[in-house]
Amino acid sequence: MRVLDAFARIVQLGGDPARMARVAAMRSRFEERTGAFAPDDDWFEERSRAFWCHAVTRGRFGREVEEALTAEERRWLVPLERAHRGLFRAEEDLLVDVWSGAELVVNLVEESSRAELDAAAGQLLDGTVVGSFDPDPAGQSPGSESGLVMALVPGAIFHPRDATASIEVVLAAARARELSTDDVLDGLLRMERMLRSLSRVKAAYAYRPETLMPQSAGVPVRRAARPST
Fold first, then answer.
1. Distance from C-alpha of 99 to C-alpha of 175, rounded to nearest angstrom
2. Does the N terminus or the C terminus of the chain have fewer Cβ atoms within 10 A?
3. Is 49:154 a contact under the CB 8 Å cutoff?
């Protein structure tokens, strides 16, 4: 059992109607920080995957379905919760985090994400990497250390190439303000959402330091409906 299988199982369990309210509350909070998304949006599937990446890793959703997991699936909960989120530049199997400076050699990537990485020259991606030792490392890249898994969690979002220069300005401002990783990367996701939702707008307009925090972003969020009384 590999980490991506455990991740997929947790996401599957999140679709149980009995957990609908909890998932909706987590998604509402995610939208408040990163911008709203709905089924008719072009970016719905991409943002849905990003939400589940957040829910399973930083949101610790696996703990809420732990009783339904096998022992092999449960062994991945701690690695998933300790996964490294970064703003990466892809250099083949090396992911360089331009925010923290970390350099991670990834040896496990799902097929669709691999295709995106191969085409990501000049792009920065908001991604999460989980690392642990797997007793069955089949499928890793040739030459990788036996049993060491460094997996890119499904749900990465690729920022447009023409936003890279503006992102560097945003990162410099974020460092000066000593913002946390999640505040910075969530802010960049709001900027990406703004750019995609506005026509004929250049990346430099959407990617600005002054929109780093949610209250100043000007990006619509979907509020949870109030319960009827």
1. 9
2. C
3. yes
Gap between the Cα atoms of 63 and 55, Å rounded? 11
DSSP H helices, 37-157, are 44-56, 71-74, 77-81, 111-118
| Among the listed residues 115, 220, 206, the one whose alpha carbon sits nearest the alpha carbon of residue 159 | 206
What residue spans define the domains of the chain? Answer: 163-216
Amino acid at 58: R
Task: Please tell me the distance from the alpha carbon of residue 64 to that of residue 13, in angstroms, as a whole number.
Answer: 10
Element (H, E) at 195: helix 181-197
Distances (CA, A) of 165 to 17, 58, 168: 44, 28, 5
| Reported confidence tier of residue 139, pLDDT bands at 50, 70, 90 | very low
pTM score, two decimals? 0.86
Per-residue model confidence as pLDDT tens digits over 26-38:
999 999 999 999 9
